Fold:
Amino acid sequence: MVSLEIAADGSDNPLSRFRPGQFNMLYAFGIGEIPISISGDPASTDRITHTVRSVGPVSAALAKLKRGDHVGIRGPFGSSWPVDEAAGCDVLLIAGGIGLVPLRPVLYHLLKHRETYGRVALLYGARTRDDLLYRPELDTWRRTPNFQVRVTLDRAGRDWVGDVGYVTGLLPKVRFDPVDTIAMICGPEVMIRSTALALLDIGVAATQIFISLERNMKCAVGFCGRCQLGSHFICKDGPVYRYDRVHDLLAIREL
Amino acid sequence: MAGRSGNGTLPLAALTVDGLQALLQAFRQHGYRIVGPTVRDQAIVYDDIESVEGLPRGWTDEQDGGRYRLTQLGDDALFNYAVGPHSWKQFLHPPLLRLLSVERDAATVRVVPEIPPTQRFAFVGVRACELHAIGLQDRILLGGQYVDPHYSARRESTFIVAVNCGKAGGTCFCASMNTGPKVEKGFDLAITELVGEGPHVFLVEEGSDAGSAMLDEVPHRAATQDEIEAAQAVVARTAVAMGREIRSGDLRELLLGNLEHLRWEEVASRCLSCANCTMVCPTCFCTTVEDTTDLTGDHAERWRRWDSCFTMDFSYMHGGSVRASARSRYRQWMTHKLASWIDQFGTSGCVGCGRCITWCPVGIDITEEVRAIRESPATTEGSS
Structure:
């Protein structure tokens, strides 16, 4: 995992004005272009931050960039997390693996406007301790007053004193009022589904659950057709959806 | 172009074959690149034509599932056939298109966008189903939040001469999709060919100011009442001779309510995932984008290429393809075309041209697949 910071020339640059949950298309010279979530602080206009996991040819090339190298960037694209609608509510951020990346801008926003929200919790599940992202920041967030942070691992070593198991197992361990909570979930699709179902079980309405979906994308503007899920173009109608608007589609395999 | 919508009450003009030739010459004088039907490789394709001699005079076609044959009747008719494997999308939304070039040197990287061409097309022989298909691609590539400049440049300067179909093909079903056979709107000029009894003439309807101006440049006369009635009879005959039909009113609900139908598995056992249906479809718009470099490594290009939801690569994400089975890929194509397209763009993505049936190597017939689901809508695999 590598975080790339791209210098932006201030707030006049449309690229530096993004809403939490949006993504950019990043181009590695001659190799290709892929969608990458914006992972930085939405209030910071001098740099655009992305966190990239090296899994394919383009992400590997992006991860190898050095200070001063060139990268192509188009964006920002897509829908965003409901940070304004959540004002006055308890907020649950639930991340699985690299699903924490598109939620980090929400964390920055919540920290900056803490008084606007009720109780706030981050529930974060990762495979192993080594897979945990943003570890120094995670420690900072953990020590922040009025900020509940719980981390769970699938596989833990002797040195891990925190929770072990699935991320839904953390729900009883944080305080929030299910009827007055906005939940934002990002992670693998199976994790999103099981987490949403767990939230419904404890009384969070489907209209208060938001999820971020991922599909193959080549254009980000609805032309290439690849990111379709039912009638949705995830690049422009998504990636963030209110759960009740897509839950029936997620139940169908290979859609 | 194409401003006005068609109106059967306008007086029609009549052109002779020489008049049609004069129209083609007028296009050339105005600098248009003339594209129309012509015989090549034992099929009627769309390509550059010089004169009416390039049109498929005396040819007709026989079409059925997985079958296309040309026959020479030897008569004078220039438009006595249904649509072939080509559609106009290959000109407006090219199969392969460079989007940009990127130059790199020691200090900097420079992006050079591809400049859209200034060449104007005159399309001759656009059928009603194809006008609807162009209208659908307009909505996708011009009508939303983002506009495709490459499509826009080609589309907006195109002059369209439509043709009312005098023959329904064996796989045609435009009548049941309400997209033909009579052209209604979206053309500059529309012609109906009268051939056989009486003199060989083309009745011409004006669909735009540009169409009227062009017609004024070529010799023509007013059509007679007999000719107008004969032209109406041509379209009426075609409408009742459709080789196929789909009951289309409730397709969205029917298909979206049967996403786990056993029929998907059955059709997948015949489907080769060859993508022919998507290549010949005049509305399929999906693409991939490919980035390349030359051998120096300092000159890169980005190309856009037609792609198909039938390929594994289409839905590939890290870890695998979302639609790994042929069942899910066929289902994606057909439910998108006939159902979710309605949610996305307000109308069905199928115009009833029948190409996907004719050019399917194993003759899979979208009308038959719909019928099979309609006749046993409750059959599912019992999954959630």
